[in-house]
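Budget justification, computational time. The allocation requested in the original proposal was used primarily to generate structure tokens for proteins on the priority list. As evidence of use, we reproduce two of the resulting records. The first is shown immediately below.
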Amino acid sequence: MLSTNNRKTISFLAKKSLKSNLSRNLAVISAIVLTTLLITAVLTMTLSINKSIELAAMKTSGSDYHGSFKYLNSTELKKLQSHPSIKEYGSSLTVGEISTPVFKNNRVEVLRIDKNNAKHSFIQFIEGGLPIKENEIVLNTWALEKLGAQHKLGQVVKLDIDTGEKTITQDFIISGYYEADKNLAMSGLAFVSEAFTKKYISQINPEISKEKGSYVNTSQLNIMFDNSFNIEKKLNKILTDTGLNVPYGVNPAYTSASLFEDLMNIIPFAVVILITMLSGYLLIYNIFYISVVRDVKFYGLLKTIGTTPRQLKRLISIQARWLYIIALPFGMALGFLLGLLVVPMISSLSSAPSNIAYSNSPWIFIGAAIFSYITVWIASNKPGRMASQISPVEAVKFSEVSGLGKKKSKKSKHGAKLATMAFSNVFRNKKKLILMLSSLSLSVVLFSTIFTIISSLDVNKYLGSFIAGDLMVQNEVLVSISGERAGDPYKLSEELSNTLSKIDGVKSADKVYYRYELKPFDDPIRSILTPLALGASGDSDIASTMNRGVIPIDLYGVDSGWYSLVNKDITEGKFNKEQFDSGKYILVSNAYFRDDSKKNTYYHPGDNISFPDLGKSFEVMALVNSDALYAATTKHYSLFGFNAFLPASELQKELPVGSDPAKIVSVTLDTDPTKLDSVEKTAKTLTDATDELTLKSRDDYKAELRGFIHIFQNIGYGLSLVIALIGVLNYINTVLTGVISRRNEFAVLESIGMTKKQLKLMLVYEGLYNVLLTLLITSTLGVLVTYNISKSISAVIEFTVFHMKWQPFVIIIPILAGTVCIVTMYAYRFLAKSTIVERLRQLE
């Protein structure tokens, strides 16, 4: 045998083979497009969600700078600015804090910043710009509303600025204002001019202010590098090069705030990619495998004339690569668009403030191209290897899709029955059968898993996190995940609450009172925060907290209607209703730290907590989760602070002189079911007069849950549909190519007396056996897989109670049976186009 080594000839043969297999090519292209589409969509969603998380973290941290050097004097600032590794920088100077009474419970820091710092700190002016004159200032819309000022340039506001050494009281003119970002609510920044700092701050010694902990007249240099890799290492190198020893910080958005921080966040996306690759592999492999077997004579003849095994393998791989190149751009484009459409849906599933950012990273397309190519390469590799191993003599004699091994003769005592023949035919090519059944079973398992998860969403569990009765009136000035808003915090008054409780049909009205407390450090608090401060040198938040010597506490007084929701959130201790009502006990939550992995708590059951503003001490009855009684709270959590719960009567009492009375956050109405509509109508009349109060019913929250389920269904069933489509394409391709490859066999059967009706019925039997085998797999191994996956996913979705569902396995029977009949009829019509004589001649 003479070996050839002509690459052009192999490419020419591959091209001709492609042209002669248009139906196969279309099936392969469809499979690659679907595979690439799903992979691209998943990568787009993953990177876009990650970018959204990072954006939210950047806004929370205050900028998108890579890192910063803190508490600098003017000499240190200039020396660091000149370092060659710094691509871009911005600086800020600490001036003090606003001490005007309206900001008593809200820290507003006063800074002088440059234009670069403003640009990288997400400050987008609605009007105006940074101040120039000594009496000009920039505030955000939230601060203007607190001051009762209009959103307008030139407004005059009187402010007290505490510099640590003195308080400066002055009328300022608004030179610019910007939208208060919801990630930074309950805190604020004000910007003054260089002229102001020269007049009032320049004489303050930065070294002394650092010792006092006020850091007034110290600068912060925020910097950008060429990239975000090894930020801390780069910062240390700058310090080494300059010989300085100053505090520095890495923007946490580049370290901890990432979808990739926790492996569990990545698993769902990775599983989808693996399922997609597996489904695509099964289809593409099956197509090429059947193609090779069908064209076995062609490959045998090529080998006879000198084509080497390596060249035969390359002949298959070239065709696969060309089809991959054709399909890739379509799959990428459609997948990217699909990913962009799904990202807002996924973001809306979170109750947190949404910062949707779309990623167009080249890694999306690089990753999609690589994963798709790996799928195509693996799928075409084995059929190519099989083609290279074909024996020329065996190939020339080969005439059916039963494989290249030895034939076995079978004996039967009952004669040839259609059902028996069909059953034997199903198992003639076990490899082809396994591939087809795997693809179909995968579709059924995925659909049943998603169906089970959606069915496990529990309405009552969901409602329990948002409403404890039938109707709830809330003061939106206090209750907002976006932080405090302008308005009257006392709008939901005792008088209005009593009016609501007296509506005909109301059985009970449970109020929630709220107070924002600044609690001075005691030994338990100091024992937690002091080590934290020592280990976080340069962290301005912990430094400021230690300097002030107080932590924020959100104190709630709850009526007895909320007691039934307490036990599920207890992490330490026990809840006793009678003892709690005595007014001697308190429930406290875990303290809120930026790093969620730190489950710190200042107090434990049996400890005593004193509240000077209440003039009383309480014993801790139990420790609860940080989000305990979520529906009763303002849904805001203060850094280093915690929530505490008392009986409502304790906050209704007359408080010591100088203490503001508690505000009513909400009133929850438990109603007579027969009068619910009339109660809702009357309550709506009472609350519609003001925008500050909202009325929501259990039905409103049910509608929100339906929206959640609708989004989940769109994403889940959409994914199932694509995977199912791949499975059906695999089945269609297997049946059609099987019929084509067996046309000679069918011609022989017809020539010896089998009728067209019998042939058609035999093909239907074969299809139904495939359905039964699929059901056998899915009802045994499939049920086990569905159960474990669904239970694991349900455990991490907040509002689910796992229930195994069997409906998908029943629903799928008629769908698969109908698909089988349609495909079989179409395949038979394709076969019937040729006469028996024409098909018999092909045996020669």
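The second record produced under the same allocation is shown here.
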Amino acid sequence: MSSLPLAPSPPIPSQVHYSVKITSKTKLEKLYTWPAGSVLEYPETSATGAIGHLFPVSEIKPTSNVLYSLGQPNGSVKSSSCNLFVGPDSAKIPCKLTFKTCQGIKACPYADLDALASPHVTASREAIAHRLSLEQQEHADCSSSHAILFQKTLSYFAELQKQGCSAPPHEATHYSGEELEERELRMTQLEDARRGHAARPTCNGRLLFRYNSQGRPFVVGSSQISCEHHNRSSNIDHFIDYNAGGGLYHTEYLEALFLNDREAIAEFEEEGFLLSNTGPHASCPTVANISSIKVNCVREHRDVSGNLDNPALIRQSCDCKFLVYEPYPEYAQQCPWVLMVCRGVHSHPIPLPTKTPPRVRDVVFTLLERLDYDLADLTPRRFLRHPSTTSYLRELLPHDEAPTLLDLHPSLGNRDHIRSYIVQVQRTLFPDGTGWDGLLHLKHQQDEELLPEDAYIRVVEEYPALGLDMDDEDDEQDCNIPFRIAICMFRACSDLLLKAKYVQSDISHQRMVGFKEFELGGLQTTSRISIPYCRIYVNRQTAAAHQIIFQKISDLVLHDTGTELRWRHIHATDVHQEVGILHFAMDQHGGQAKGLGLYLHAYAQRYPGKMDLHEDRLLTSLDEYDHLARVARLCTAHIYRNIGKADVSEGVRNLMRSLVCMEHSKWDETIERIIAEGGRAGANWVADKIRSKFAFAAMCWEKSFIPRAIWQVGDNTSNIIESLHADANREGVSCSLVGGVKKGRHFDTLKIKTLWNLGSVGIRPGYARGHVSETTKKSLKRKATAQHRVLEKEDARIENQNKRLKAAYDSRNAAERRLSEGGSQVALERAVRGRDRAQNALEKAVTASRELAGSGSGKVGLLLFETGSCLGAGKMKMMLDWSRNGNFGSGLLNEC
């Protein structure tokens, strides 16, 4: 990108000539000669003649930079000449003459049209700034609290009339007479404002101003504005607003508007006009460029019939002409100039600089096209702060500490304007969108442009609805939609997966909108670098869906490597042989687990005569859960987190945690105790594990058939795959399907290149050398830090509770003293009430303190009360708990 002159700084002409005759009939009052690259937005014109502007030939025509909207009447003269354009032999060079007319502006018909017709022949940003400052001052003078409340009420009513009730159409509503005419007029205005976009069918019921049972309007909770079809027992989806009477609006004016009390309305609106020049009778300042998409005035006005109206903006025409003399291309070297001639007066306000000059627009488009994987989900905000944008702006504007796009041109301060540019580029690069069809287009584009070995998007398929199985954890409303699956992986990842022994899986709901990202990954054995083997994007999580996922992955590995994906318990010849995948860490998702088991069950049918390694039975006789018992391991982090959320005592939680083990001598007894002591929550926890049919075997080595050494070496958490998912999420969440795939490709490419760099030149991604001791050290430090952080918070909670308990204790004692002092009957009754309140507060504080028993580091004492035999008399002992197991110490602090 070449540097360009900043549009906020107006160009300076290199020369000015006067009384220049360019044709036999045209004589220029002035002729400005502009340097190359000049952006002339407001070319000077003349009321009595013509002004010329001479530019070096460029691919951008001078009229493209003009902010005045140009159009009909227009035309061209193919054969023309100009005295300024002569060749080496002084002969006139043939040129093309085109002309256009200024289209003026659009204004509200209730505006001061005479004032808007004030003529001008020159314009500048300073003149615009002066006009805007006057308008802002006038607006500030009319911005009293009364005026704001009045306008807010009127706008609220007007928008309710436009939008109506948004419920689906069901009940019939009948209009007639004047009410029907007003509704038809309003519908016509709304249709014009939509500019051809179809409206969503909605209820056409009337919105009513309703009263409460006492006949008083607008008491929050007992009166409201609601659709006539709204009913609390049946039609609750119809419009209702309980807040309308909560003091947010001018109640009396709003009531008059709903009741169409014209006399009261006129009184309120006349008062608003006289006091603050506001309301539907005030003069309207709405003006828009002719190219603006605005159709109607946003302000409410009263038409001649007294009805509220958002009138269509009317065009205020202009007769100013723009003529362009341009030599034909074959004469461009002899005469590299273009002449723009302006004649006539602009009879309208100076247009705002809402149009971006072509050169600046090209810069924006080039920046957008360079964003690659960020473009699919780009928003104006992300574009403004994108490193590519800020880097370019800093290079272009080195003296600006915080350059932004609007420093290139003021029109880029409009984020909707930037969004329109983003959408244009997205439609060019993603013609089929960024959803499923967009991914199909992206795969087709990949297959045409890349070699098969470089492909990343490997499978994009759609299957009929898979239904819902009793073991699935999918949404019921999704059971009838087609199953869509997209698998993304590099060929190099197939090699890595084939060699992997310890694999982990995780599914993310954050990365995609409408899709889940299922990911397989693990730790590369020699480098100890975490690697994502493949990413699978699906819209279902059923067991059948996961079976298809695993089968497709296996097919891709076979296609890429020529070798089948192997599993220890299927392919090994004895129980000690370590072949293929030895250990699969996952969370307790029923669909994923059963899907893996179904895939392994189907795989095992290919070995009809082979015996199982662990039981005296054929391999083909194993069901899906038998296969899981030989390879699956539940993530202990998920287990412990769910146990921590369980609504059971800490003792029961410890019983639950004890089941995550190598061996358990009292397994059945512990299960019974969890059910008996854990209440409903404990019973549900056990029932959930039994229902899954694989959880207990995936928690306890003794219950599984995974060899002991493999269990001990295997990952007891899915932290590796979850860290990979977290890293990918840093590239962006809530992505479109195309955007997520492109970001995933970028991340996976970085991982593959990191591995290649390590294998080729020995450079690791960090200073760590990849030895297991470093991982162990980091893990121990992390655990210790986390433990100390938790204990510090618990100690702080104990200290705060000690202060609350001491304060409650002192308050109770003070209340007892006031009661013992006696006094009048009234004073005694007040003292008794005070004592009772203090006693209740103390009992609550004691309960809260006892709940903290057993927490903390043990270095902060917990103040407790030990009730004595004279508790009925309100006497207690304050104890200090130094224990961690909840057994209170006997240190007496005080006696009351």
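A brief technical remark on that second record: The first strand starts at residue 15 and ends at 21.
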